[in-house]
Prior knowledge:
Elements: H1 2-17, E1 29-39, E2 49-61, E3 64-73, E4 90-103, E5 108-122, E6 132-143, E7 148-159, E8 173-186, E9 219-224, E10 230-235, E11 241-243, E12 248-249, H2 268-271, E13 276-282, E14 285-293, E15 305-311, E16 314-319, E17 328-334, E18 337-342, H3 345-349
Amino acid sequence: MKGRFILAIAAGAALLFSDAAEAQQAGALELGAIGGFAVYDSEVGIESAPFVGGRLGIFVMPNVLLEGQWTYGEPDLTDQPGWQGREFISHELYQARLVYTHWLGESMGLLLGAGYTQDNYSRVRNVAARGGGPAGLLGLRYRWSDLISFRLEGTAYHVSEDLEAHVAPRPQTLNLGIQAGASVTFRDREVETIVELPAPPPDTVMVTEEVAPPLPEASPTQICLSTGENVTVYVTPQGDTLVGEQRVRVDQLGPGMGFAGEYAADRQWFIADTPITLTQTVSNIEQDLEYVKSGGEIGLDCANVVRVGEYDGIPLFADVGAEVPYETLYVPVTPGVWQPYQTDLAAVRG
Length: 350
């Protein structure tokens, strides 16, 4: 017994100081040394006792280990003395199982295992016969480095009843245990090859300057709007009217764009040359004076006229300083274009 414990301690030391292995991968081997404490079913006839052992496994998948385990203990007999005066017996346990590691973090993982266990009671005894059955494992793995990890586990295995077993009938039993150990993982070393790639070519950035087309040739001129304000427009040699910084032709203005104010060009009374009226006070009497078109359309400077009223929503203007009653009114036809209207002042004054 003493010799077996010395071997177990030596195996554990070899694991802790070994540097021949690296992190686990499929095909890697794991070698471990363990120690623990077994709690036997009362039907077996032996007391709970410590044990030592070892295990060897291979990773069939990165997190799935197929392992075999052997442990040895010398539990005391429950009823002493036993056969030929024995006080304890030798107990060996052989286990084969699959162990899955579910990582809870970078270093800590949950162990779940299942497999088959066979026990063997040796030396002269008067306890249950050897037998086997399904087994389970639940524990934790702590990965100290890519080479070394530590495991703490609880185990259980069930042995079915066999009343005809040799030496002594075997009752149905459920044996428990707790064990801890250190493991080292062996795998083929990977050769890391560093390939230096040529530096990528610098990005090509195309810088372009967008040059606006030259503005069309035109002469600035002032036109008077129906709002009473002068605005600057440009007139080309061909007579086209251009507006805005980009000198856009008036007939190219989009919907919703145009000059401010109201104009008479599309009013039916203007098209039909119908006289218009403006209410004015003459000799302290308000009169609706009638005005008719007089001459052709003209241009005006807004500085020379003033708004004096409106007709059908169209503003009416007269010369600055003109006295009531006004002899001439100016009707805005289109922006910058005006139509004079006159009345017969002799008839008005009698």
